[in-house]
From TrEMBL:
GO terms for biological process: small molecule biosynthetic process. Belongs to the iron/ascorbate-dependent oxidoreductase family. Pfam families: 2OG-FeII_Oxy, DIOX_N. Gene3D superfamilies: B-lactam Antibiotic, Isopenicillin N Synthase, Chain. Transmembrane segments: none annotated. This is Clavaminate synthase-like protein. Residues 206-322 form the Fe2OG dioxygenase domain. SUPFAM superfamilies: Clavaminate synthase-like (SSF51197). One of its GO terms (molecular function) is metal ion binding. Keywords: Iron, Metal-binding, Oxidoreductase.
Length: 362
């Protein structure tokens, strides 16, 4: 259910510009605010985050073209905003998008995935249980890319002639988001008093994932009756996630004080939503929360008397994880021998992430 007792302001909004350009005391204050948000909620909105708003808008233009026109839908379904059809990526025909197919399984997470291929599961690894979950696949399509210098997971791009400019733009956008991740890691290092050089070098290879997501329009009844899902309740499994949303809404975050109760996490203009993943929660000895979240009905469609069609939704998450050989063990400031002993055995970042990825596709 959606909690009636929570409101949008329960996820703190922090002005990150004071960390980027402020005094040392201002930087410490911002670091403390982010630390507090991650301890209490697991999420924080960052304003003035350093990724230019025009660049974010341009990325959404590419996303729209990739997905939109190939569905051959009418304006009755998608509403009045038809101007986006002049934009770039998800509007390509399916046969064109399949020129950059996501490989089978989850070990090479790159390229295009058609609606229904992926099914999010929350800490579920039994093959039989995963098969049951996949009977109601997530109704979305996606395109994944990563660090262009990552030889272990090379990107899978469309031929340049099919979508000129797409590859260089996404590589540039990747760099901007990667820089923001490293700045947030520096802020977290300051909050914990992690000795120099802090957490950023543990992500030195920037083994990150830029994901373009499109949730097609669908009948409201299908979502309410669970005949289809967008993304079921889950936590992310890396260290940090950046999320840029369109204005449709639908993201919900679990109430940290009431399991199974969710509240909206609406888009805020010119802000990025940042959340902790499972590896970072483990690394912090559960000081920071890896909060469960999902995509459901937009807030304006929760009443049965509203529209019968749930509008399409676009989002751009950017998933960060540590270098594959990084040993995830409790960080300084997150444990002590008396009151806060270590809860988890050490694990490498890559081994854990690959186990989680396999459950999505296999």
């Amino acid at each position: 259910m959606v909690s009636p007792n929570l409101n949008d302001s329960d996820i703190p909004v922090v002005d990150f510009d004071k960390f980027l350009q402020g005094s040392e005391s201002e930087k410490e204050d911002v670091a403390k605010q982010i630390d507090k948000a991650f301890r209490e909620v697991g999420f924080v909105y960052l304003r003035n985050h350093g990724v230019d708003n025009g660049l974010v808008d341009e990325c959404f233009e590419w996303v729209c073209i990739l997905f939109q026109l190939s569905l051959h839908t009418s304006s009755d379904v998608y509403g009045a905003d038809r101007s986006r059809q002049s934009k770039k990526f998800f509007a390509l025909p399916t046969e064109t998008k399949m020129l950059a197919p996501h490989p089978p399984g989850g070990s090479h997470h790159r390229g295009y995935s058609a609606p229904g291929l992926e099914k999010v599961s929350q800490h579920q690894y039994d093959a039989g249980e995963i098969a049951k979950l996949r009977e109601t696949p997530d109704y979305k399509e996606s395109f994944e890319s990563g660090n262009p210098h990552d030889a272990a997971q090379p990107n899978i791009w469309l031929p340049e002639s099919k979508l000129p400019g797409f590859k260089p733009f996404m590589e540039s956008y990747f760099t901007h988001c990667s820089n923001l991740v490293h700045l947030i890691l520096t802020a977290l290092s300051l909050a914990l008093r992690v000795p120099a050089p802090g957490l950023s070098p543990t992500h030195s290879k920037s083994l990150f994932q830029l994901r373009l997501l499109h949730y097609p329009a669908m009948e409201r009844a299908q979502l309410v009756n669970e005949a289809r899902s967008r993304i079921n309740a889950h936590s992310d499994f890396g260290t940090l996630t950046l999320l840029f949303q369109d204005r449709v809404g639908g993201l919900e975050v679990e109430d940290p004080n009431e399991k199974g109760s969710f509240r909206p996490a609406p888009p805020i203009d010119d802000a990025v939503l940042v959340n902790i993943g499972d590896l970072m929660a483990r690394w912090s000895n559960d000081r920071w929360r890896s909060t469960v979240h999902r995509v459901g009905l937009p807030p304006n469609l929760t009443s049965p008397a509203t529209k019968k069609i749930v509008p399409e939704r676009y989002s751009i998450p950017f998933f960060a994880t540590a270098d594959m050989d990084t040993v995830i063990d409790a960080l300084p400031g997150c444990w002590d021998e008396v009151g806060r002993p270590k809860k988890y055995e050490p694990v490498t970042a890559w081994g854990y992430v690959q186990m989680r990825m396999a459950a999505l596709y296999e």
